[in-house]
């Protein structure tokens, strides 16, 4: 295994050869050197990082943007007359414009900085949701949700005596479109769907789902936590009402994420949290709220995180999302073929439209043991329910082992994974 990985240069060349045209547009070796952590050893082996759906590694440009901000640019924003505050404000607002362009939103005031996808969903549930959903109403989600797109709606439904409905999926992990549409009825007041499933990799036909809901005047939130790193997202083309994602899954920092909302939706919504920055004026009798987007950004925001996020999005755009998608698709096909050839291994999630997630179970070996033995070989995968317990129940399994891909992964790393699994089978034989 080591020989497959020690020569990075030959590694990237053979990845190109194995994936053909998909990788020729990208210099994977150069990309790998952008990520300092990829040069480290784990248990004496070169790190093979295949836990990207949990969080991605950070390129030097992101690390530099954050440390430069703290070293030379740190000041609180929006309220200062001094130069540092003005510069920090400019950088923060420039980052908002970067996100606007990244998502193709109409206006930067539609971009709300939050802590992550989870907070974005909670914000919508607690504002739009509490305002519009009442007793007997329904919120429709899918069977493939991350807990972050289940629990906020469940909490809302409990509070309002509303009903959470679940659109079913096939054994391949594809949403059953007819059943989804049949669940939309006059009680449905909101739809929340994942763009890409974190546990299966399924890419949902979001534009078509939004269209089905909009035909009945039902607004739609899209959980894009797993989509933004892997595919171009155009919120206007999708026509979704809300879109959320987390910085740390797209090569950016933790603790920062984005809620996109259509302006007319955000304007009609009450604030989420009260505090500094979200106000126009305050008296003890009454507070007038600030305009968008500040109405939803109470308190000192994560300035360094937002600046780091803009650097991450710039990095991704520099490579090009189309090239990333094509390359990762090649890796996914390569990995799918290699894993499928292992006797006793079953892939969970075999949708036709799929992003770089290889979830699997093995006869007689618990996913936790798979993860532990692979870790000894320097290979980081995730094992467990992936914050999708109802999905595990749907497949009647307690957990899966999940290798998830990023642009810096190579076919040699997938070879190492396969080699590691073969070795694991010997250990457990
Ligand atoms: C599909 C999906 N939605 C939401 C989340 C929550 O993201 P965060 O924990 O960054 O808020 C995740 C994280 O794994 C995810 O994969």
Count of helical regions = 17
In oligomeric terms, what are we looking at?
Answer: single chain
Structural class determined from secondary elements: alpha/beta
**What is the arithmetic mean of pLDDT?**
95
**Which regions are unreliable across 5 or more consecutive residues at pLDDT < 50?**
1-12
Number of strands: 17
| Strand line-up in the sheet with most strands | 4-10-9-8-7-5-6
- Main pleated sheet: 7 strands, mixed
Instruction: Provide the list of bound ligands, each named once.
Output: pyridoxal-5'-phosphate
Helicity range: 40-55%
| SS strand fraction | 15-25%
Distance from first to last alpha carbon: 20 Å
What overall form do the CA principal axes indicate? globular
How would you describe what is shown here?
- By secondary structure, the chain is α/β, with parallel strands linked by helices.
- Helices cover 43% and strands 16% of the residues.
- The chain contains 17 helices and 17 strands.
- The strands form five sheets. The protein has a seven-stranded mixed sheet, sandwiched between helices.
- Helix 6 (83-103) crosses helix 13, helix 7 runs parallel beside helix 8 (151-160) and helix 14 (321-340) packs parallel to helix 17.
- The structure holds pyridoxal-5'-phosphate.
What keyword list fits this structure?
17 helices; single chain; alpha/beta; 17 strands; 429 residues; disordered N terminus; binds pyridoxal-5'-phosphate; globular; 4-stranded antiparallel sheet
């Amino acid at each position: 295994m080591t020989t497959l990985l020690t020569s990075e240069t030959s590694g990237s060349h053979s990845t190109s050869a194995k994936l053909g045209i998909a990788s020729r547009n990208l210099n994977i070796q150069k990309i790998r050197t952008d990520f300092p952590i990829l040069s480290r050893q784990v248990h004496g082996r070169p790190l093979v990082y295949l836990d990207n759906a949990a969080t991605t590694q950070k390129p030097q440009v992101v690390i530099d943007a954050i440390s430069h901000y703290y070293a030379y640019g740190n000041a609180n924003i929006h309220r200062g007359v001094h130069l540092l505050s003005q510069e920090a404000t400019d950088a923060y607002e420039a980052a908002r414009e970067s996100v606007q362009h990244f998502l193709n939103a109409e206006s930067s005031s539609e971009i709300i900085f939050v802590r992550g996808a989870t907070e974005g969903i909670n914000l919508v549930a607690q504002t739009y949701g509490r305002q519009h959903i009442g007793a007997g109403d329904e919120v429709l989600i899918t069977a493939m949700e991350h807990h972050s797109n289940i629990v906020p709606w469940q909490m809302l439904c409990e509070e309002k005596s509303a009903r959470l409905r679940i659109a079913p999926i096939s054994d391949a992990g594809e949403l059953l479109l007819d059943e989804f549409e049949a669940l939309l009825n006059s009680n449905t007041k909101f739809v929340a769907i994942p763009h890409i499933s974190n546990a299966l990799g399924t890419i949902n036909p979001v534009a078509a789902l939004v269209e089905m809901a909009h035909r009945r005047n039902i607004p739609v939130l899209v959980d894009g936590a797993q989509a933004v790193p892997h595919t171009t997202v155009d919120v206007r083309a999708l026509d979704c009402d809300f879109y959320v994602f987390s910085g740390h899954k797209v090569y950016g920092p933790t603790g920062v994420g984005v809620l996109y909302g259509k302006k007319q939706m955000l304007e009609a919504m009450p604030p989420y949290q009260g505090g500094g920055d979200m106000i126009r004026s305050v008296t003890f009798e009454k507070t007038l709220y600030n305009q968008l987007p500040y109405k939803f950004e109470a308190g000192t925001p994560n300035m360094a995180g937002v600046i780091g996020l803009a650097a991450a999005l710039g990095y991704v755009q520099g490579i090009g999302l189309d090239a990333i998608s094509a390359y990762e698709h090649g890796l996914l096909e390569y990995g799918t073929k290699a894993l499928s050839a292992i006797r006793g291994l079953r892939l969970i999630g075999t949708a036709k439209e799929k992003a770089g997630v290889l979830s699997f179970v093995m006869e007689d070996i618990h996913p936790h043991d798979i993860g532990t033995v692979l870790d000894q070989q320097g290979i980081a995968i995730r094992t467990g329910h992936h914050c999708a317990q109802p999905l595990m129940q749907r497949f009647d399994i307690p957990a899966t082992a999940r290798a998830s891909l990023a642009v810096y992964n190579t076919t040699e790393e997938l070879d190492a994974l396969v080699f590691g699994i073969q070795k694991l089978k010997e250990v457990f034989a």
